[in-house]
Write a structure and sequence with these properties.
The chain contains three helices and nine strands, in the order αβαββββββββα. It has 299 residues and is mainly β. The chain has one domain. It has a nine-stranded mixed β-sheet with strand order 1-9-8-7-6-5-4-3-2, with no helix packed on it. β7 and β8 form a beta hairpin. The protein is globular. 40% of the residues are buried.
Length: 299
């Protein structure tokens, strides 16, 4: 693997991102009624439990780069989530700081006791699936130092979110008015349906598995997880990401959080080979003092 210079960058960021193709089982199946969750309102109001700042995610390229122009729009006036202009297709969205759970808001997140204990252990022993090349749903892809790319195909009525730091897995958001299937095989990205509310893309997702962390800190969840995300592009360079998390298996009530994303128009999708040979050993040492790498490590 000596020919892969990106390995060094991934280790420095404490991330060896994954991405493995994750099929979306039963994605075409539809039902007449969308699942309802008591106490969960579609659309996340202002007033988040979290916010920018804190967390352990990188995002140096997402720093403020000067005043941004207006958000790009299609011919019919709808905001676009791609490039900085309607003709510019390249560019990625990078984190500006924070995450769903930060040092500042951790005490306000309604963890069940077992979930809080799991998080405490993960903070010390960072055996994260994402650094072992596994896909990550919900907020985790937006917290990588490589960013994500939005691709909208209006003729297919779908939006794709590409997670760049890995073998190019992607998430599909169905924009054709369908409902969630009556039955789903749990997956890393779940089943997402979306719609527009003004300049905000609203995405409702169910059908997650338990094989990923909600964020880089290690927030747990169960297969009961249901999320409502809101992507609001404020101008050419800035987007607000808000999320409502409803998981009665891990939390005592639904809770909200969010953080900012910044657009870098000078970056495009690139080849990334995810390492599965424990190169990010700092994330595996945890509560121990060191790791012995003189012999091969078999997971």
């Amino acid at each position: 693997m000596r020919h892969l210079p990106l390995v060094a960058a991934a280790v420095l960021c404490l991330v060896v991102p994954m991405l493995a193709a994750e099929g979306q089982a039963n994605s075409e199946q539809q039902t007449a009624q969308q699942p309802q969750r008591p106490g969960v309102q579609v659309g996340v109001p202002d007033g988040r439990a979290g916010g920018a700042g804190g967390g352990r995610q990188g995002g140096g390229r997402g720093r403020q780069a000067g005043p941004a122009g207006p958000a790009p729009r299609s011919a019919d006036g709808r905001v676009l989530l791609g490039g900085a202009t309607p003709k510019q297709r390249n560019g990625v969205w990078l984190p500006s700081g924070g995450g769903p759970v930060t040092e500042a808001n951790m005490k306000d997140v309604p963890f069940q006791p077992w979930a809080r204990a799991v998080l405490a252990d993960r903070v010390v022993n960072e055996l994260e699936p994402h650094t072992r090349c596994k896909p990550s749903g919900v907020t985790r892809p937006f917290l990588t130092p490589y960013g994500v790319e939005f691709v909208e195909l209006q003729e297919l009525q779908r939006i794709y979110i590409f997670d760049i730091g890995g073998p190019h897995t992607y998430r599909t958001i169905y924009m054709d008015g369908r409902s969630h299937p009556a039955t789903l095989s749990p997956s890393y990205y779940g089943h997402s349906i979306g719609w527009w509310e003004g300049d905000t893309l609203v995405v409702d997702t169910v059908g997650f598995n338990e094989g990923f962390w909600l964020d880089r800190r290690g927030s747990p969840h169960t297969e009961q997880l249901h999320t409502v995300e809101r992507f609001t592009r404020k101008d050419a360079g800035n987007m607000q990401y808000d999320v409502l998390i409803d998981d009665p298996g891990a939390y005592t009530k639904p809770w909200k959080s969010g953080f900012a994303l910044r657009h870098d128009g000078n970056v495009d999708l690139f080849e990334y080979v995810c390492q599965q040979m424990n190169y990010a050993h700092e994330l595996m040492v945890g509560s121990n003092d060191s790791v012995d790498r003189r012999s091969p490590i078999i997971p």
